[in-house]
Amino acid sequence: MRALLLAAGFGTRLRPITNTVPKCMVPIHGKPLLGYWLDLLLNDGIDCVLINTHYMPMSVCSFVASSPWAPSISLVHEDHLLGTGGTVLKNRAFAAGQALMVAHADNLTRFKPSEFIAAHINRSAGTVMTMMTFDTDAPQTCGIVELDARGVVQALHEKVANPPGTRANAAVYILEPFIIDFISSLDKEFCDISTEILPHFLGKIQTFHNTDYHRDIGTPESLALANNEFIK
Asked: How many domains does the chain fold into?
């Protein structure tokens, strides 16, 4: 399977750290966040990775060029941001007509990609994508999901004040080609997966629960927590 790592954002909530480095290159125990993603994916079930860039792209390009994974990595630059769904659509040729893993590379995570892929292959009948979930300690800052007995998403609550639980969208997905076809049908250059794609497919999104580790490092406070919690 192939994976698209979304790494083009500004990381505004992490300023002033991200005034000099893109969010995906913020270090955890001295190692850039992007490095953890590449080691995770390319060691277990992912054949090649495409990374999109926008903000401070040379930092990402230099890191990739010096990475032992460089032969398995491609880069694509966005002169203007396309949104998560727009980036998937723009790079649909990379998916080669197969299921595609799509991940927000600005989260720190640890899971087994091969198990995630297996869960997608064995997903419930009628579902067209698989979403990774995790249990969050800050549910008001996340997209909280409600599931049925099969683990299929029935409702989404995106960053609401009083969410009904702590089971959250980890922003890591495996999308069937049908999803990219749907994005194309919207006829929009900019498109967001969380707000424009997921709500349309309620009842058709399988979940895979990450019981190991997952944290959005979007603020200095969450970055400090990650550095304390995460074992390299």
From this structure: 1
What residues contact residue 102 under an 8 Å CB cut-off, 6+ apart? 3, 4, 6, 84, 88, 172, 173, 174, 175, 193
Cβ proximity of 160 and 184 under 8 Å: no
* 96 token code pair: 């080669």
Domain that holds residue 116: 2-130+169-229
Please report, rounded to a whole number, the percentage of residues in the chain having pLDDT higher than 90: 72
The domain that contains 74 carries what CATH number? 3.90.550.10
Model pLDDT for residues 39-89, shown as the tens digit of each residue: 999 999 899 999 999 988 888 999 999 999 999 999 999 999 999 999 999
Can you say whether residue 103 is alpha, beta or left, with left for phi > 0 and alpha for psi between -120 and 50 degrees?
Answer: beta
